[in-house]
Write a structure and sequence with these properties.
By secondary structure, the chain is an alpha/beta fold. It is built from 16 helices and 13 strands. α2 (about 20-40) packs across α13. The chain is globular and about 80 Å long. Bound molecules: adenosine-5'-diphosphate and magnesium ion (MG). Magnesium ion binds next to loops.
Length: about 475
């Protein structure tokens, strides 16, 4: 009974520290809009970098030819080739391959990482079949999706601002990542030109727009989180160049670095942040994204093990190990709807090493998964809502008339595979928008949209015009 009382006390404390009432989400969204505006002004203290992508035109559907794309940004990287057939034939054929990045390369040297990538790309190019056609005398062209914050200097160049999501490599920050990749391709003897360097959010936006003309923003919920959207070029005070003909500019918000007193930051978040590779940074990302959700759950379970002997008199040693509980496992436990929570029990055995857990312990574990996932999903929805606010697509125009159909493209393993998470994002967004506006807004899964998007942008920025 004493154990139960102590468990209840911890759970109650967790519930209140992770709570995200709708009113709080609204004030978080307002704070994000303010930060977006600061970022667009170029305020050096702005938390959202609001990076200029140099993409002022999204794909039209007319793109044609053979293009490659490379997506580097998480645990896997993908290479892709696509034969584009213009307005009529669209995507004629596409092929891709996924390669996981050996963990030691994520914390090694720049050259090792880029050599590994270029080698995999060269191997992939070697398998190009007859369905793909490169006109005589032309160089192959590549769209490079690089999902880290970059200070873009043109559509095809940019310097790394910082690593995130578990990457920590000396000597890349401040370097042009396109030159790094190009040099590595040369070392592999691969003749290919990078014609577009894009963030994955920008790639997803481009891929999303190709599929649906009403896509105005893209959000990634994967290992990390980020968003991009189409801004009016004249609403970007820091843009000193010529106004693009289209009047638009895609902005990569880098919203993962958002931080605010309003965010419901618990002791578990603070401890995880403190021990991370990038303490004090990417606070919003650490509350939302796939790299961290399972780890937050682990920390709460550990507290319950310590304070309320949740897993018996001894704290299971495996539970002490950071990142042993991964978000896909958390998701599997959370989705267990069997009467005896059998899957969850088996996961606890596998991961934590506790063979016999009572039904009550399993229910508590599932409840913790629910609390952590729900907070993440609701915070993500607040972010999406803030972008819609920023571009005036959060409510029916006051001048009367109907709100234009508005589509947000979403991608990332977390959104794609964690059903309870994605449904919560969607229902919270509906809730924030209200009935009328939400009837014009759709969230759409853009599966691997960033790869196609990068290839499309490589096509529209081809050296052959
Ligand atoms: P990245 O973000 O690294 O480019 P993805 O978009 O494929 O790659 O996202 C991978 C991330 O998605 C994983 O790190 C994991 O956190 C999350 N994820 C993958 N599968 C699942 C799942 N079944 N349930 C919950 N999260 C998942
Ligand atoms: Mg990705």
């Amino acid at each position: 009974a004493e154990r139960k009382r102590r468990a209840a006390a911890v759970i109650e404390e967790v519930e209140s520290s992770l709570a995200t009432p709708t009113a709080l989400l609204r004030s978080i969204a307002d704070a994000m809009v303010t930060e977006m505006e600061r970022g667009l002004r170029g305020d050096i203290h702005a938390q959202l970098k609001m990076l200029i992508s140099y993409v002022d035109n999204l794909p039209t559907g007319d793109e044609h030819g053979l293009f490659y794309a490379l997506d580097l940004g998480g645990t896997n990287f993908r290479v892709l080739r696509v034969q584009l057939g213009g307005r009529e034939k669209r995507v004629v054929k596409q092929q891709y391959e996924e390669v996981s990045i050996p963990p030691h390369l994520m914390v090694g040297t720049s050259m090792e990482l880029f050599d590994f990538i270029a080698a995999a790309l060269a191997k992939f190019v070697d398998t190009e079949g007859e369905d793909f056609h490169l006109p005589e005398g032309r160089q192959r062209e590549l769209g490079f999706t690089f999902s880290f914050p970059v200070n873009q200097t043109s559509i095809s160049s940019g310097t790394l601002i910082k690593w995130t999501k578990g990457f920590s490599i000396n000597g890349t920050v401040g370097e042009d990542v396109v030159s790094e990749l190009s040099r590595a391709m040369e070392r592999q003897g691969l003749d290919m030109k990078v014609t577009a360097l894009v963030n994955d959010t920008v790639g997803t936006l481009a891929g999303g727009r190709y599929m649906d003309n009403d896509v105005v923003a893209a959000v990634i919920l994967g290992t990390g989180t980020n968003a991009a959207y189409v801004e009016h070029a004249n609403a970007i005070p820091k843009w000193t160049g010529l106004l693009p003909k289209s009047g638009n500019m895609v902005i990569n918000t880098e919203w993962g670095s958002f931080k605010s007193d309003k965010l419901p930051l618990s002791e578990y978040d603070k401890a995880m942040d403190f021990e991370s590779l990038n303490p004090g940074e990417q606070i919003y990302e650490k509350m939302i994204s796939g790299m961290y959700l399972g780890e937050i759950v682990r920390r709460i379970l550990l507290k319950l093990a310590h304070d309320a002997s949740l897993f018996g008199d001894v704290v299971p040693p495996k539970l002490e190990q950071p990142f042993i509980l991964r978000t896909p496992d958390m998701s599997a436990m959370h989705h267990d709807s069997s009467h005896d929570l059998k899957t969850l029990g088996a996961k606890l055995k596998d991961i934590v090493g506790v063979a016999d857990t009572t039904l009550e312990v399993r229910y508590i574990t599932r409840h913790i998964c629910d609390l952590v996932a729900e907070r993440g999903a609701r915070l993500a929805a607040a972010g999406i809502y803030s972008i819609l606010k920023k571009i005036g697509r959060d409510k029916v125009p006051s001048s009367g008339g109907k709100m234009p159909r508005t589509v947000v493209a979403l991608d990332g393993g977390l959104y794609e595979h964690y059903k309870k998470f994605s449904s919560c994002v969607e229902s919270t967004l509906t809730d924030l928008l209200g009935e009328e506006a939400s009837s014009s807004v759709a969230a759409k899964l853009a599966n691997d949209g960033s790869g196609i998007g990068a290839a499309l942008l490589a096509a529209s920025h081809s050296q052959y015009g």
